[in-house]
Fold each of these.
Amino acid sequence: MEYQENMALPHAAHSRPRDWPSAEDNVFLRRSSGNEKFMQSYARLPIRNFVAPEIVLGAGSLELAGQYACDLSQRRVLLVTDRGVREAGWADKVKRSLALRGLEVALFDQVTASPKSEEVILGARHYLDNDCDLIVAVGGGSPMDCAKAIGIVATNKVSILQFEGVEQITTPGPPIICIPTTAGSSADVSPFTIINDVARRRKVTILSKLLVPDFSLIDPLTTSTMSDAVTVSTGMDALCHALESYVSNASSPLTDLCALESARLISSSLPIVHNDPTDARARDMMMLCSLYAGLAFSNASLGLTHAMAHSLGGLYDCTHGEVNAVLLERVVRFNYPYARDKYDTLERVMFGDAGGKDSLFRRLRELREKLGIRRGLERFGLRREDIPYLGEVTLVDLSLATNPRPATQEDIEGLYEEAL
Ligand SMILES: [Fe+2]
């Protein structure tokens, strides 16, 4: 692809040259000598952008919230969280760190799972009423997504739903610091926020570079209070981010590197944490995997699994990561003929060798079942008569644009049927 003046930087559905070396090839290149000829056979480096916040990673980094916040706030901080994270004590720890630096805090903890547009309005009001100038989010994907949306609404003073789609936000919100307490959503590094439009029973995806947080303080200690169910579902969400961004039409050598390493580490670390939640090293590793996967999907986007999970999440109250886990193996089997080499590479890094479509399908299913996710989508309330509607909604989801295989409504409905 030739660079042209005014050309939109590829961030969505652009195919990259098939013959660009994969991360696996890069390993081969490092080992081989006289590879000049080999390199010459490849296309030129494709133009891709890569966005990320300033990241502080490591045990205890949560304690740095005050230090980072005092550079950004002269007035008051809106601390966004949910009740569960408060009860676990993490919100209070952040509050203390902010207070130690002399910062005043207004607390907003009314965020629920799959944050609703009404919660965003409430939070924005709280931000304005308390004359805040900085947002600190502590929690999983829901508080962080809600915090990003609160910032945009507080500044623009219109409904967050008006910004649906790609780069629709023109006026940035206040600075944001994110402190994730789960290893999976990666909302702390991503340019996305997903908000539930309750009136239309749809999850709305908003993608904008203005949604990338200013700082991400990633502290693996915060994941020690996650239940096994949350550990597994957020971990499977991260795996899904890695796999979908790796085969995405908008992937690049940079995102490939992150995605592949994430998939490799999750396949070994997640079963360890599931069996022994006190294994601190495996918990650290899961936080790292989540970050890698987050950087990959923030810059290569996702695919059909997420498009279908978003549609289902708008209609039913269901766990995002668990829905992804159930759909993933089926979407991989559907996509396989369109990204064969990449799926084979994934299977090799995750399981040691590659046996093709059915082998990867079976191994992903075994991994999911080993982690205790054994039931289909019926358990979330999915009814056969809702499938045509879900098919329609999935077709317009942003994540579908970068799926390696084009999908028709019929294809999507078939995948929902299979996953019942
Ligand atoms: Fe996800």
Amino acid sequence: MPSSFEFRRIGNLPPYVFAIINGLKIEARRAGRDVIDLGFGNPDIPSPDIAVQKLAEAATKPANHRYSLSRGLPKLREAIAGYYERTWGVQLDTELEITNTIGSKEGFSHLMWVLLDRGDAAIVPSPSYPIHIYGPLFAGADLRQVPMRSLANPAPEERTGFAEEFFDRLTTAYDIGWPKPRVLVISFPHNPTGAIVDLDFMQRVVDFCRERGMIVVHDFAYADMGFDGYQPPSILQAEGAKECAVELYSMTKSFSMAGWRSAFLLGNAEVVQALVKLKSYLDYGMFQPVQIAATVTINEASDFPAEVREIYQSRRDALIDGLDRIGWHIPKPGGSMFVWAPIPEAYAEMDSVEFCSHVVREADVALSPGSGFGPGGEGFARFALIENEKRIAQGIRNLKRGLPKLG
Ligand SMILES: Cc1ncc(COP(=O)(O)O)c(C=O)c1O
């Protein structure tokens, strides 16, 4: 390896702060300690039985071992179109307005290559899921970050205030600076804050982007994870959405199929087809048995997301009620699979990495430091609801012991 060689595209990436906590977790486990892992958003709920059966069945057929279609089998695209029609009343052209992606993370990253080039700019909220920040940067674009209000979840009566503040900041981000941003990235229910919005909000986003000739990318990873009767809106429900909007829908959380890497880009036909073109150079699609299993799952296990949602909602309640009892008071998020917690007053001298390092060392609980989600995340820690209620209860006991200055 020549000593002068530089990895230019990745050389300037900041250290992945989640790796620090993960390292401490592994160290603790090696030392025989039982760490309650609420760090990564890696779902623990098994995938639907029908998905596993169909995968096994399809894998025995040699015809399914060949390269498949990058944009997804026609029946898979029909299945997700049917799901959108039943769930959100959105009609999609299966030839032009839908493509399969290898998880939404892959879809999002390559979509940024399609939409952005060197010198372009994108507006991204802060804090955000990390690839929303790094996807545009990898494509060579500049970022305009819009601070999200640090409220974990606006209650219905506060939601208008949240929207007003968001649009004020969005307008400022657009008006200030040159070149004008070409892309807006949003994602609701929001990771990490759990913030939720209504269809009026989505309509305003669509109007904002249409007026300015921008493309809006809505990462809908928590499409089916709305709590207490709330149903997250698809941006494609908004009037005129197909002129400027695309949405990523993933089976990762809704169907608890994280490892299967099955997701879709839906909406504006030109944007979808541009991604299809790029991906035809990059990949040969998902393993066909996975596509077949995903098709049958969407068609025949469409109640599964509701079961998953119930589980996360009960875990949310167990966690927030438990934290409340030990003196850490956090509003309940209306969606996602996360709880976004301000670092308690008594520990405010620590930054989020110091705080989460302290928690894993002293309480055997792994959390994600807020700063890993961008500068807007400092001062917070994120709990992922990926352990069962018994383990969450153990986590609360551990936190009471490891955070004696609480309450
Ligand atoms: C907002 C958001 N988008 C995308 C993903 C990744 O989804 P996928 O497994 O479909 O790549 C996650 C996972 O945590 C997420 O929180």
Amino acid sequence: MKTEISHDVVIVGGGIVGTTAAYFLSRQGKSVALLEKGQIAGEQSSRNWGSVRVQGRHAEEVPIMLDSLNIWRSAETQLGESVDWRQNGQMLVAYDEPHLAQLEATVFEQRRFGIPSRILGPREIKQTLPYFEGTGCVGAMFNPEDGCAEPQKAAPAFGRAAVRAGVAMFTHCAALGIETRAGAVCGVQTERGLFKAETVVLASGAWTGRLLKPLGVKHPSLWIRGSAALTTPLDIEMRKAVVWGQTAYRQRLDNRVVIAVSEDGFHDLMLDSFIHGISFLPLAKKNRHLLRFSLGRPFFQSLGGEFSTFTRHRTLDPAADHKGLDKAKALFLEEYPDAGTIDYERTWAGYIDYMPDELPVIDQPTYPGGLIIAAGFSGNGFGLGPGVGKTISDLIITGKSTHDLSAFSSTRFQ
Ligand SMILES: Cc1cc2nc3c(=O)[nH]c(=O)nc-3n(C[C@H](O)[C@H](O)[C@H](O)COP(=O)(O)OP(=O)(O)OC[C@H]3O[C@@H](n4cnc5c(N)ncnc54)[C@H](O)[C@@H]3O)c2cc1C
């Protein structure tokens, strides 16, 4: 069926950013179409490990993240369903004095935003996490106001609430291109026909650069493969914090633990690696000990043009890094020897849309008029997502944001 219908706003992408933007816009009375090439939250938004934190973020992101935390706090009441939100705090553990000194400096720096992080000594860590045995641990930074939510529940719940408020949601409906007239957007061409609108929001995650290219807007994002796993229920309890220790983990209410490969960045070489690679050299140099590269199937898929169309990969589903996950399990066991044998019930991976400066693009470029870009969250967009959705809604409803968005401008790459 070919459609030609008009909305005030067309949003491309049904991740946490697209669904929350749709939710806030519809509550302001806008008519919104939400287009998703696969299923809602099929890509990054359901594949992350659920950490929601303001602590340790880039300063530029903190004001939006504080808004986001407020949205997370009231989300279950607003949405009328559970997203397993828990404000149980986040702890970042230090194993040497220089790292602890860095954390102390971060605690001090964050005070200007009113972030109540504090430094815990090994004894206080043990009070929060009785089974923690991290040998050599010298302290930790702890923010009691951070928390976590269940990625597989959150964006779908915002999507359902948006539909109840009137949003027209189209899944398995890929946007093929942005239509423009006289220097402004006038709609989105999709595999189901033309969706007309004077405002188009690109919340299209890892695919955003491909939609922007024909418009001449540069978006030098590379895909970093992140992996995580879910254990069987554990007999030990560690729910009083989301922890960034030797690896990153959080215990769910059902006693299972989500463990993430937190430090290593795994990059599958693709055509884009050679196109955008130069922009990433400073970041790669800084993180050279943590970066790993692979030349395999994704490279040949990109050569064959598989990632240049929006209908070939409805949902990016890269292979989990089993070696990394085995290492993460061993590191976890060093911190929790009483956990016994750990079996992974499920493992998965997702492609993270990484930017060279690790900051997203949240921008209304001057050309084409009516376009809003919100992508490139560099591994931190789940927690930030609802705040970004609200920011997008403010930009559309009032023409401005209460936040300074200059650091997120797309002009920094032009
Ligand atoms: C393993 C892993 C762990 C992570 N851990 C955390 C964490 O703990 N905390 C945190 O804050 N962040 C984390 N992140 C990052 C976080 O998941 C992302 O930053 C966030 O989900 C991005 O949301 P999004 O809506 O921008 O993009 P996505 O969730 O990727 O959604 C974009 C959507 O757009 C759709 N789309 C793209 N192109 C088109 C098109 N042409 N037409 C129609 N639809 C289209 C895609 O199919 C996709 O569903 C992690 C990511 C991964 C992969």
Amino acid sequence: MATNITWHPSLSRSERAAYRGQRGLTLWFTGLSASGKSTVAVALEQHLLHLGVAAYRLDGDNVRFGLNKDLGFSDGDRAENIRRVAEVARLFADAAVVAIASFISPFRADRELARALHASHEHDADGPLPFVEVFVDVPLAVAEARDPKGLYRRARAGEVKHFTGIDSPYEPPENPDIVLRTDQASVEDCVAQVVRWLEDRGLIPAGKTPVADVPPAP
Ligand SMILES: Nc1ncnc2c1ncn2[C@@H]1O[C@H](COP(=O)(O)OP(=O)(O)OP(=O)(O)O)[C@@H](O)[C@H]1O
Ligand SMILES: [Mg+2]
């Protein structure tokens, strides 16, 4: 722990939100591998950008290519993986962006830590940031039948150890904010469900019209 450090105050979150014309928040997708977290998160990110709402996705494997490339899959490293991602999601939310985190995050304690980081933070004078737990809920049999990465097959064959749902537990959220049944609803319907939930609570502006044309990248 560094001791010779001093917090430097910055703009208030509401000032930042006013400049950006939107508030920040974190959507935390949790669910079994192949439940559809990444698929829905990608479609949601694109939909929000299309509506002119800044959004950015933080995703399981992707962060392990960079930020968390020093972490493995031991219990301690998994917890540190989630802690770091929760801190980064919080920074995006603090910057008035919709952070979309999609991680299996099988343990309640880790998800509660992520929520707690958004509820209060050292030196944070701006109060809690919205943290929305999205449970992507499908029966294990459905996820296993999808198996887009072949991981369930390898876990059943004993080639992948500690695989969630097979030889490592998944602790379902007790009180999720949103439940997506991707075995019953299409990707588009799941996206619409999340967007409606956010609009109903004033977390994103309601009735925004999509940007007509996507401008070319500068
Ligand atoms: N309604 C739906 N929503 C999302 N995914 C769906 C839906 N219907 C079918 N699928 C399929 O289910 C699979 C979900 O895979 P995806 O990679 O999104 O899961 P994941 O939860 O991100 O898994 P992991 O934790 O391994 O990253 C994809 O092959 C997708 O096409
Ligand atoms: Mg994924």
